[in-house]
Design a protein that fits this description.
Blueprint: H1 14-20, H2 23-26, H3 30-46, H4 52-70, H5 83-95, H6 97-101, H7 108-144, E1 149-154, E2 157-163, H8 164-189, E3 191-192, H9 208-214, E4 219-220, H10 224-229, H11 232-258, E5 266-267, H12 286-309, H13 325-347, E6 349-350, H14 352-359, H15 366-375, H16 380-396, H17 406-412, H18 426-431, H19 441-457
Parallel strand pairs: 3-4
Antiparallel strand pairs: 1-2, 5-6
The protein binds arginine (ARG).
């Protein structure tokens, strides 16, 4: 019979028992559950609700279970519906009556909320570490390839030459925002529901400040009904994971493109590639694809929880049991994808020459040629038109702007001097954009400094 079996004459059958259980999903929180129980027992003793002897027995018993668990030797009973009951039954079996006093002034409703918040905080900390690791690698790649010039794209069409470092740093800033979002999710989780009991608080003189301090929460949640039914912090965590996966997915999409024969911008290390069972020549960017693909399930985790929460009346409802696998899945998926992508970036070979060769193709100098005319007095709209016509001329004659002679330029406008043919070097074009946040060498050096200090701060 379950721990709550007093008012029942009959147990549920095995399938029903399994259907209602959450043990599979919440056993990942066993250490958090034990931490919360030890704090609760300590507070009960401090308030004179249980004796110091009972508290000592509970504390030693729980410490022992935590050790067994860490060593992987904890056998679960199918009758234990969830991790809270599993730990409590184990404790009572080990120490007897003192164990049966642990649940005084507590419900599984505030217990699960407490475990989940401690667990969410631990997940956030892991993710923040992983995020820092990935950003360190991005910064390293940006520093090591400072003067590599590549085509910058809009609509995946050649737009203007940019520095590869600048491109990498764009991702650095995306992941910096993810760090902020994950930190906010951590702060959202950082409040103590323990002491709210089932939904209404309790008649025992609990000291909620004491458990708040013992568990390292920022503050106690001021409303017991909100405390047991709020899962917003898990949504915050899943949203932060979803956005970060989206950033990883964009980066991975670029790695897939760049490692193709058409681009040839990078070669992935063998350690981050796979072959084909039929085509002997294949070297596939599987891990970039997999990280891109896993983004879908992380979005799914967020949508699932949003949908579960919708329409729940206050306070606790069993639906809330459904909110554990999602955050666990979202967090570990992001965690592993960040590590894989960091490793992939760190070990890939950057082909500077291939990037440079493409940087000048596709009329990437066109804006600068128009600016050339504008700086010699032509209104920009007119210059845009003149250069548009030049591009058309090039297309018809199968040439690029770089291939044109000064006379061909002059045929389009007498404002062109001979120096126009020297002004089309992609590196020069990129480096001329040296305003704050631009792709020019000096601006990127400044940006690298700023990125380093932000990383230092985080
Ligand atoms: N296993 C439940 C959960 O994970 C614990 C709380 C159950 N409380 C209850 N009265 N059914 O949400």
């Amino acid at each position: 019979m379950a721990l709550w079996g007093g008012r029942f004459e009959q147990g549920v059958d095995e399938f029903t028992q399994e259907f209602g259980a959450s043990l599979e999903a919440d056993k990942v929180m066993v250490q958090q559950d034990i931490r919360a129980s030890r704090a609760h027992a300590k507070m009960l003793a401090a308030q004179g609700i249980i004796s110091p002897e009972d508290q000592a027995a509970i504390d030693a018993g729980l410490a022992d279970i935590a050790d067994q668990m860490a060593a992987g030797g904890f056998a679960y009973d199918v009758n234990d519906e969830d991790i809270h009951m599993a730990v409590e039954s184990k404790l009572t079996a080990a120490i007897g009556t003192p164990g049966a006093r642990l649940h005084t002034g507590r419900s599984r409703n505030d217990q699960v909320a407490t475990d989940l918040r401690l667990y969410a905080k631990d997940l956030c900390r892991e993710l923040l570490e992983g995020n820092l690791g990935l950003r360190r690698v991005l910064l390293g790649v940006a520093k090591d390839n400072l003067d590599v010039v590549m085509p910058g794209y809009t609509h995946l069409q050649h737009a203007q030459p940019v520095l590869f470092s600048h491109h990498m740093l764009a991702y650095f800033w995306m992941f910096t925002r993810d760090f902020t979002r994950l930190s906010a999710a951590l702060r959202a989780a950082d409040a103590n529901p323990l002491g709210s009991a089932a939904l209404a608080g309790t008649t025992y003189p609990l000291d909620r400040q004491l458990t708040t301090e013992l568990l390292g929460f920022d503050h106690a949640i001021p409303n017991s009904m909100d405390a047991v039914s709020d899962r917003d912090y898990l949504l915050d965590l899943e949203y932060a994971c979803g956005v970060s996966m989206m950033h990883l997915s964009r980066l991975c999409e670029e790695i897939v493109l760049w490692s193709s024969t058409e681009f040839g911008f990078v070669t992935l290390s063998d350690a981050y590639s796979t072959g084909s069972s039929i085509m002997p020549q294949k070297k596939n960017p599987d891990f970039a694809e997999l990280a891109r693909g896993k983004t879908g399930r992380v979005y799914g985790d967020l949508m699932a929880l949003l949908t579960t929460m919708k329409g729940l009346p206050l306070a606790y409802n069993k639906d809330l049991q459904e909110c554990k696998e999602g955050p666990t899945d979202a967090a570990w998926t992001l965690h592993d994808c960040m590590a894989i992508v960091a490793g992939m970036l760190k070990t890939m070979t950057v082909h500077a020459n291939a990037m440079l060769a493409q940087a000048g193709r596709g009329f990437t100098a066109a804006t600068d040629v128009a600016d050339y005319l504008t700086k010699r007095g032509m209104p920009f709209r007119e210059a845009h038109e003149v250069v548009g016509k030049l591009v058309l001329y090039c297309e018809k004659h199968h040439k690029d702007l770089e291939d044109l002679t000064a006379d061909e330029f002059r045929a389009a406008s007498p404002l062109f001097d001979d120096d126009i043919t020297h002004d089309l070097d992609p590196a020069g074009i990129a480096n001329a954009r040296d305003t704050y946040g631009g792709t020019g060498h000096d601006a990127v050096v400044e940006q690298l400094d700023e990125a380093s200090s932000v990383l230092e701060r985080d």
